[in-house]
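Example 3.2
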Amino acid sequence: MTSTDAELFGNRFATHEVPTREFPADGMTAQDAFRLVSEDLALEGDPARNLATFVTTWMEPEAQRIIAGNLHRNFIDHAEYPRTAEIEQRCIRMLADLFHAPGRTTGARTQGSSEAIMLGGLSLKWNWRKRRGGSPAATPNLVFGGDVHVVWEKFCRYFDVEPRIVPLRPGKYTIGPEDVEPHIDENTIGVAAVLGTTFTGHKDDIAGINALLLRIKSERGLDVPLHVDAASGGFVWPFLYPDSAWDFRLEQVRSINVSGHKFGLVYPGIGWLIFRETADLADELVFQENYLGKTDSTFTLNFSTGSAMVLAQYYNLVRYGRAGYAYIMKNMQANARVLSEKLAAMGRFELIGPDDEQLPLVAFRLAADNGYDEFDIAWQLSAERGWMVPAYTLPPNAQHVTIMRALVKETMSREHVDTLARDIEEACATLAKKGGAHESERTRMLLGPGH
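Structure, written as tokens:
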């Protein structure tokens, strides 16, 4: 095929290898570049059938127009884009209100909950230094459970904090005050509790931990703050469980992070860090930046970043309001319950805490040894039916427990739930006939047909 033929009839990469290693010597037409990238992505999985990710995979066309129209706008340029900066502050105030902040407060938009957790942890550390006054240097520690996201361990390693991790155990996949108390001392910068774990979708006993910290403050004089990692649950609990106290209604909760790009229903990446009061943000961490003709306060690990997702978050907040978010969350919860009922009716599975407060998901495991395991089911669903339903082992000391998790999101209709349930049952029937997947099959599924 000549270059002229490719221009007339199709794609120059129809029979040629695409650039993968060396920096290309020459460029290509915009049409060729577009086709190259688009055809590569055609090999990806379908986001609508990705029940593993918590991240938003669909937004309304109007929201997409706002995103597309603002991809070129640098969020950090507050002097040039003051309305974007004001919209960020509106979102912070609205989230503080949603989380029952008692008065004037502050916060920050972030790339996601990972950055928010890093910033929240730094504020805990700096405030701990302030509480110690002029005492000799000591190693600070942070208490959290094995049910946290790995970013908490990253924070401890990156910023020289001792992690005091409460291990899980079979049948107990969250933590409470009895787990936390033995780990607290005068060098504890804070306790981190999770609202909606990535493993089973449940919450730590945040109210119980708050009561423990109040007792320790009264009896031992140690004022240990509580940070709530509400990456997933911060946009769920206020609408599904409004009477459940986990937020600033609890006295020791001093900061909360939440991911806008999860149940905040925004594309990645956008997260939020909200403080109970302005005093909970350590002054030393806020920089006065004279940039492009305007002095701004900055509290961030990133600098240049897009405005689009901040604007998309504000769009969602005003578009849906409390009533809209409640409607969407209740729909997801209803479909999750239908899926739970269908899985229970199969007689093959044990549901993980189906009657507890939980994210709109279904966590389940095989109830007995059937000659195949949860990983076999996950590979069957992926390889033959196109569903991405993860199977994984839990953290220590529950590492011998394997579970699966199906996240029921906004775009998953009742018909999708019914189809998924049938596919799971058929996958189990197929595996029962085959006697499970052999190790060579598992390896081939992981590595692909070329290996």
